[in-house]
Amino acid sequence: MKHTTTTPRPRRGRGPAHRIGRTLALVLPVVLVLSGTLAVTRVSWSGGSSSSMLAASSEDVSTRASSRAPQDVLRDKLLLELQERNPGVALTHLQQAVNGRPSLARHCASIARALGRAAVRVYGPARAQSYARPVCDTSFASGVATQRG
Q: Is 83 exposed, middle or buried (0-12, 13-18, 19+ CB in 10 A)?
């Protein structure tokens, strides 16, 4: 009896079927997720037609304050406070609102500029500038300056 040793055969490269299978395994889940996401966004979940959605969005803008964005409600409140009291009180309350609700911080500068413009209309440029302080950087002063010229 002759004893032969078997040497391992070199492994042949993976065939095209294996490469196609791997590609599908990577691409198919992405395609399914994207198509499912697109399908969900196209469905009218309210049960009405798309024309009812357009009609709802074109309703009168003067809706209840609770349906408006928080920064718009705050701005309107502070503008009223500026007229009834003074810009210093409005700026103090703006800073308190931003400290109490950090999500308003990104709107702080635009609200402070609006207060600055309103202060010029109510108090004049020189008196409005006297209320400037570093709330939301220098946005109040910027609003005063843009309203002057």
A: middle
Beta-carbon count within 10 A of 85 CB: 11
pLDDT tens, position by position, 28-54: 777 777 667 666 666 555 555 544 444
What residue type is 104 in one-letter code? L
Cβ-based burial of 42 (10 A; exposed 0-12, middle 13-18, buried ≥19): exposed
CA distance 128 to 33: 55
Rounded Cα–Cα distance for residues 90 and 94 (Å): 6
What's the pTM value of the predicted model, to 2 decimals? Answer: 0.54
